[in-house]
């Protein structure tokens, strides 16, 4: 781990363990979302897991004593820990709130006997939706996978382990490390305080350069699922459409055997087959298609077909069949110098930036919270959001597909500020993360653009090669979508902007710049847009803007941190947006949807308060300003009758 700082600062030597552990890397195979089908079963492992933080000075006792070799309770004291959830806010232990290092999870599961028998026996896979940040997983004491990255899924075929063990008990052990280095994504650094007159022995802190709390834990569902020994490994679809017909291009890969036959059926929402095909690659023709439209652009947004893929293959003389159903939305995306087109029609992003963040559970997936957030989005009249600043859970993305919420899908590339984070080691990891992200979300109609980073130090010269490479790699992985990153650099100094398809710019005039002076917004925001467009001739999204407001704090005339100031700032920005969206501004995303937790600091009182909703999802005054605006924009641009109101279409 690289340390930051100068005199009196050194590495925590035993944390170097993170860099040198041997193991199996997650492979390049497909990453289809687990689904129950006639040939596949799932077993969800959510609930209480055993948990133990490694409090040894070097955080290495778990490896030295091989905690994975026996039940975790036999290694020392354990506590119950809910999964999915962040571990930070669950207990009353302040040392766990800001803990950095290795923690250990364990779950004992009984497997159905039918999963362990047969000739050939089914394939048994262990899958994690995400775990932050570095994970090593054992099953019955055998290491099966390790994975770097806190926001994307990883899995391991554990068939040989569980089918070769006596009985049906499956003991899953996870070692998880939340340490961030200059080469992780997001980056960070460990600062080890050597001054013993000021700090306890072995004292170190995690430094980060992003403004949200570095929650850690198993954040998304853990599942066991089965497939036949010969199975559908991956599916890729792209779509094109005209007024009366559409084409669904597909590519299917199989594993475990050579396919005897591979057939495909595309069904509409009533279950009617509208197109069929066969073979691993081809096109399906759909007459009079129902296109996937964003919310408020069509009376039936988020229309999804179901692509059923059926494989038949011989394994050991036995004919096996695997079935997988993939939701498919038919839509096109195109960018001009002044517009963002969905299905050939201009699309204006009126939406939000979000965080996966809530009381107690931190970044852990929580269905009531997810559904509440989508109800608030539709109440607000929002048609889009950015996954600031990391990929969100697949369950959230499923609802974006189904509800017609357009998504700018962002990688965890936030806080890339130090020159060493632009080196080849960081670059190679960033490329691998984009591969994982595209592999996971490539088939989602809601994903209309990739974002490779947020507010990097793109004014540094190495940023030119770095972002040219990352963006080109992302386009090679998926030529069907535009690619951007979100900048807060000066238009004349940004080395990455030449390579993006859409300019996404963050600015906080009268907040971080000229604080308290609302009168400067029209001049400065207008100059921002005109300078960027004159330089690059590309459409622009205001990807962040906003002000902190403490709920219930009022001031007239408006003063900073009052609800009135937040309202006034929004209105000043909106007046400029209304002029420029007639030209080349194609969207506005408020920062932020809801208040969220950050590291402690003198400018943060229990987190960032720029939400238009509180952390408990109650509206501030600014939410009503934004709601009136978004419904007005929707009525101006919608193909629906003008009777749409903010009281319809969101239940």
TrEMBL record:
One GO CC annotation: lysosome
Keywords (A to Z) from UniProt: Glycoprotein, Glycosidase, Hydrolase, Lysosome, Signal
Annotated signal peptide: 1-26
Glycoside hydrolase family 2 catalytic domain boundaries: 333-634
Species this protein is from: Tichodroma muraria
Function: Plays an important role in the degradation of dermatan and keratan sulfates.
Ranges for domain Glycosyl hydrolases family 2 sugar binding: 45-228
Subunit description: Homotetramer.
SUPFAM superfamilies (alphabetical): (Trans)glycosidases, beta-Galactosidase/glucuronidase domain, Galactose-binding domain-like
Biological process, per Gene Ontology: carbohydrate metabolic process; glucuronoside catabolic process
EC number: 3.2.1.31
PROSITE patterns associated with the record: GLYCOSYL_HYDROL_F2_2
Molecular function (Gene Ontology), one example: beta-glucuronidase activity
Domain Glycoside hydrolase family 2 immunoglobulin-like beta-sandwich stretches: 230-331
Primary location: other
Protein name according to UniProt: Beta-glucuronidase
Pfam family, one: Glyco_hydro_2_C
InterPro entries reported for this sequence: Beta-gal/glucu_dom_sf (IPR036156), Galactose-bd-like_sf (IPR008979), GH (IPR017853), Glyco_hydro_2 (IPR006101), Glyco_hydro_2_AS (IPR023232), Glyco_hydro_2_cat (IPR006103), Glyco_hydro_2_N (IPR006104), Ig-like_fold (IPR013783)
Family: Belongs to the glycosyl hydrolase 2 family.
Highest taxon, organism lineage: Eukaryota
Compartment list: Lysosome
């Amino acid at each position: 781990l690289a340390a930051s700082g100068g005199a009196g600062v050194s590495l925590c030597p035993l944390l170097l363990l993170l860099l040198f552990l041997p193991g199996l890397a997650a492979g390049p195979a497909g990453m289809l979302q687990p689904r129950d089908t006639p040939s596949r079963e799932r077993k969800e492992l959510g609930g209480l897991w055993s948990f133990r933080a490694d409090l040894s000075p070097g955080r290495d006792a778990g490896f030295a004593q091989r905690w994975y070799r026996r039940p975790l309770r036999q290694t020392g004291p354990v506590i119950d820990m809910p999964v999915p959830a962040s571990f930070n806010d669950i207990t009353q232990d302040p040392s766990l709130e800001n803990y950095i290092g290795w923690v250990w999870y364990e779950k004992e599961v009984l497997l159905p006997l039918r999963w362990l028998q047969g000739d050939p026996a089914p394939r048994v896979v262990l899958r994690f939706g995400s775990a932050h940040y570095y994970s090593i997983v054992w099953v019955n004491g055998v290491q099966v996978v390790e994975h770097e990255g806190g926001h994307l899924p990883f899995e391991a075929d554990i068939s040989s382990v569980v089918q070769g063990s006596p009985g049906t008990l499956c003991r899953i052990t996870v070692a998880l490390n939340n340490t961030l280095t200059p080469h992780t994504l997001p980056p960070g650094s460990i600062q080890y305080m050597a001054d013993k007159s000021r700090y306890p022995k072995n004292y170190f802190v995690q430094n980060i350069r992003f403004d949200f709390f570095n929650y850690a834990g198993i954040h998304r569902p853990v599942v066991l699922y089965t497939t036949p020994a010969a199975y559908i490994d991956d599916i890729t679809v792209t779509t094109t459409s005209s007024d009366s017909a559409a084409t669904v291009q597909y590519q299917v890969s199989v594993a475990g055997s050579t396919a005897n036959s591979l057939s495909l059926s595309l069904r509409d929402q009533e279950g009617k087959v509208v197109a069929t095909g066969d073979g691993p690659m081809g096109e399906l023709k759909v007459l009079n298609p129902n296109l996937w439209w964003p919310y408020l652009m069509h009376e039936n947004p988020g229309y999804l077909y179901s692509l059923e893929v059926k494989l038949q293959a011989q394994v050991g003389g036995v004919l096996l069949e695997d079935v997988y159903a993939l939701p498919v939305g038919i839509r096109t995306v195109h960018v001009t110098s002044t517009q963002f087109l969905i299905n050939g029609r201009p699309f204006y992003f009126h939406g939000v930036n979000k965080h996966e963040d809530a009381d107690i559970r931190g970044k852990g997936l929580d269905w009531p919270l997810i559904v509440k957030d989508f109800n608030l989005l539709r109440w607000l009249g929002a048609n889009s959001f950015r996954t600031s600043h990391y990929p969100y859970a697949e369950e959230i993305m499923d609802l974006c597909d189904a509800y017609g919420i357009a998504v700018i899908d962002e990688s965890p590339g936030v806080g890339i500020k130090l020159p060493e984070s632009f080196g080849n080691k960081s670059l190679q990891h960033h490329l691998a993360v984009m591969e994982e992200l595209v592999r996971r979300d490539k088939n989602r109609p809601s994903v209309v653009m990739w974002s490779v980073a947020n507010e990097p130090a793109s004014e540094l010269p190495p940023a030119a090669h770095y972002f040219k490479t990352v963006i080109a790699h992302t386009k090679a992985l998926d030529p069907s979508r535009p690619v951007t990153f979100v900048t807060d650099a000066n238009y004349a100094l940004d080395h990455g902007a030449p390579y993006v398809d859409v300019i996404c710019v963050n600015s906080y005039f009268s907040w971080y710049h000229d604080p308290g002076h609302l009168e400067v917004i029209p001049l400065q925001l207008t100059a921002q847009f005109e300078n960027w467009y004159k330089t690059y001739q590309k459409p622009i999204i205001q990807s962040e803007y906003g002000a902190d407001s403490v709920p219930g704090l009022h001031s007239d005339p408006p003063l900073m941190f009052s609800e009135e100031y937040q309202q006034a700032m929004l209105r000043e920005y909106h007046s400029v947006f209304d002029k420029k969206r007639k030209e080349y501004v194609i969207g506005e995303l408020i920062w932020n949807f809801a208040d969220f937790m950050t590291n402690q600091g003198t400018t943060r009182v229990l987190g960032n308060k720029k939400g238009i909703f509180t952390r408990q999802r109650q509206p501030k005054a600014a939410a009503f300003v934004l709601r009136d605006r978004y419904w007005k924009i929707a009525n101006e641009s919608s193909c629906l009758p003008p009777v749409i109101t903010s009281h319809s279409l969101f239940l």
